[in-house]
Amino acid sequence: MMDPSYLTYPNRKQGQDHRLYDWRLSRDRKPIQWDNGSKLALSFVVPLEFFSLNPSGVPFKHPGAMATPYPDLRHYTVRDYGNRVGVYRILEALGKTRAGFAVNAMVAQRYSPLMDYLKSHEIIAHGISTDHIHHEGLSEAEEDVLIQQTLEALPSVSGWMSPARNQSSRTLERLGKAGLDYCLDWENENVPVATTGVTLVPNNYELSDFTLLHTRRQTEESWKRQILEAVDFLASEHDRFGGQSLCVTLTPYIIGQPFRIAMLTALLSDLRARGDVTILTPGEVASQFKAQQ
């Protein structure tokens, strides 16, 4: 039976349950214009994650965490394969196309040769590891420590994505105070949203390779088709609402597998052939959005 305390939420009130940004209709916001007049700004984010062989599970296990009793070498080595092999296939497929790489601090500390390969891309802080979840049970000081330890390993970054994309009610405020500019945890819009802390760059969970290929066990062809259908639909909304945005996750241990990587190459080819889509990093999306506010 569910604990009754789960139904107690002190911030519940009429309208929105927060004061991070104002409620407004899509038709009432200022239209965004992307570089080159593109109708859609598409971004890729590649999470580089460190998975513990024996995760604490506090306050929950990361969705990609170990699934069987210790030592779960099968799942651990597949995820490690992503950081050792799969990510390099993604980099080769991307070519000169820049992406955002969301890096755990423990990956930055352990995989220095990999970090050298990412110098032409955008680095995004991704917490300490998949076993360091941000949640309401942390004090403000404890959350500040997690953020600062992450930034010590990843200096000069401007973006953030929380481990498991989980936050406390204070996370955005703490990120802003730490000097970060944008966050990839939320997916509440098809365009960036300005908050009292940082800019929210929507990051689509439904179209991620983890969701469609791993969780829902769909085919690689279906994954590609659904992304292109989303691109078509969002581009069609440009005339009514202005420039739209879409951020798609590429997980190294999933799309970086040898039987899947060809579908990423095909997707990129289709996107590059379009004249109405520009591929930007998440930080570039945030910067262009902020410049127009």
Automatic annotation (TrEMBL):
InterPro entries: Glyco_hydro/deAcase_b/a-brl
Domain of life of the source: Bacteria
Descriptive protein name: Polysaccharide deacetylase
